[in-house]
Amino acid sequence: MKVESLDHIVLTVADIEKSIAFYTGLLGMKEVTFGSGRKALAFGDQKINLHEHGKEFEPKALSPRPGSADLCFVTGTPVEQYADFLSSRGIFIEEGPVSRTGAKGSIRSIYLRDPDGNLLELSNYE
Known about the structure:
globular; 8 strands; 4-stranded mixed β-sheet; 2 helices; alpha/beta; 126 residues
């Protein structure tokens, strides 16, 4: 027995619409509505389900709160170009480009924050 892949994660946010605007407008994710009006962000073969803080769906994490995630996304866009794009839209790049190690090997990364303060890493495999 073994786990094969990650299907989705849940991100607890303060404002779902603000998060959707950020992730769709700057990271190119797609807004998805499912179930009884629940919202998610789709990209590749994965999705991020969004829970509004204080209105989470059950079952949920033991201590869900906005700003507690640290996520790494792989992009086909060179991170140097992505940094310029984000900076031109007023997004502060906290670090990078820097070399790191991803799940499959060496990556080049930049770091930024989403509206809730979650740390986001955008990476290219080298």
